[in-house]
Specification:
Structural class: mainly beta
Strand content: 35-45%
Largest sheet: 6 strands, mixed
Distance between the termini: 78 Å
Order of helices and strands: HEEEEEEEEEEHH
Shape: elongated
Helix content: 10-25%
Length: 242
């Protein structure tokens, strides 16, 4: 005798418990995904602040009151002049560019070949001249292009003297990062300045920086929303032939 055994069905309480466990697992996975996508600013090693030179103080007193190694310039304006000194760069950049171009070209060609005379008359077939030809060709081209761009950057950023050149000029570099609710903003500045351009307040204008490299950018939700998608960038790239 064969006895059929039906599998036991899960109880309602067990089914609800499994649903809650699955929902909790999906919630944890979603939370981990969004946490991994969070914006965490990372400092750029190329703009890390330079450390000042190590001052070696002589252990043997020479009886002099003034020591060059511990000079603090009490009777001068406190301006950046050594490696590791901090200086404030006042950002005041504005650029305006406009470009316009227009091209027009026309070309036309007309060639007439009358029917030749054979034996005192035109060559015909069924009353129509068969050797008369007219050729007409024309070519037109017109192109117009307009471009306009305007940029402006205002603010300030503290940078560090990275190198003192033999002629006294200072190579500076530094960055400022701001972490906001919807992302982060970063300003990077580097270049060469003259000590004469440093004000008594230890500031220098950004338009007085030689070989200046000034960049401003951001990451996060706002920056991503202001950027075209990868498919749009593909259709607008030089790869797309149309």
């Amino acid at each position: 005798m064969i006895t059929m055994v039906r599998p036991s069905e899960p109880r309602p309480s067990e089914s609800m418990g499994r649903r809650y466990s699955l929902l909790a697992l999906l919630t944890l996975l979603a939370g981990g995904l969004f946490t991994g996508c969070a914006v965490t600013p990372v400092a750029d090693p190329a703009f890390a602040p330079a450390e000042p030179d190590i001052t070696i103080v002589s252990a043997e007193p020479n009886g002099a009151i003034y020591q060059a190694s511990t000079n603090r310039f009490f009777f001068e304006d406190i301006r950046a002049r050594r490696v590791g000194d901090v200086i404030i760069v006042i950002l005041d950049e504005r650029t305006d560019a406009t470009k316009s171009a227009s091209t027009s070209a026309n070309k036309g060609t007309t060639i007439g070949l009358p029917s030749p005379t054979l034996f005192g008359g035109a060559a015909t077939a069924r009353g129509r001249e068969i050797l008369a030809n007219d050729i007409t060709a024309s070519s037109d081209f017109a192109g117009t292009a307009d471009s306009s761009q305007s940029n402006r950057l205002n603010g300030s950023v503290a940078v560090v003297v990275d190198k003192v050149l033999s002629n006294g000029n200072l190579w500076i570099r530094g960055e400022k990062r701001l972490t906001l609710n919807q992302g982060s903003e970063v300003v990077k500045v580097s270049g060469l300045i003259r000590p004469a351009d440093i004000t008594p307040q230890n500031t220098v204008q950004s338009n007085q920086i030689a070989a200046a490299s000034i960049s401003y950018g951001g990451t996060g939700l706002l920056a991503d929303s202001n950027r075209a998608g990868w498919l749009t960038r593909f259709f607008n790239s030089a790869v797309w032939p149309f």
